[in-house]
Amino acid sequence: MGGYFVVQFNKTSESSAQKGLDGLAAAQDKVMQRLERAKVQGECGPKLNKPRDPEYWLAQPASPKAKLANEKPQGQTVAYEQLLKSWQGE
Fold it and tell me: Which positions ≥6 away from 76 have C-beta within 8 Å?
C-alpha cells in the first residue's frame, strides 16, 4: 500500500500550521483505520483507541502539558551588569 501525504503550511499563521498538522493526523488515522479493518498485518497491525477529548489525554500520567495561554511572552531588555549580578546571586 504505497502513498504519501501532502501537508501545506502557511508560515504567517500558527493556526494554519495547526490545521495542517490536524489534517495530516486525520489522514493518517484513515489509513490506520483501513489497515485495522482489513487485518492485513495480523496481530502486528494497528489497534486504534476510540476518539476522546484532548482533556482526557492531557490528564493522563506522563502526558504532554496543555498549551499555555501566553506561549510567546514579550521579551525584555536587561542591562548586562544587572544580568551578571543576578547570576552571581547579588
Answer: none
Does 10 map to a domain? yes
Number of domains within the chain: 1
- Digits of tens for pLDDT over the chain (90 positions)? 456 655 555 555 566 888 889 899 999 999 999 999 999 999 999 999 999 998 998 999 999 888 888 888 899 999 999 999 998 876
Gap between the Cα atoms of 45 and 47, Å rounded:
7
Find the domain containing 44 and state its range: 1-66
Rounded-to-integer distance, Cα 59 and Cα 79, Å: 41
**Whole-structure pTM value:** 0.56
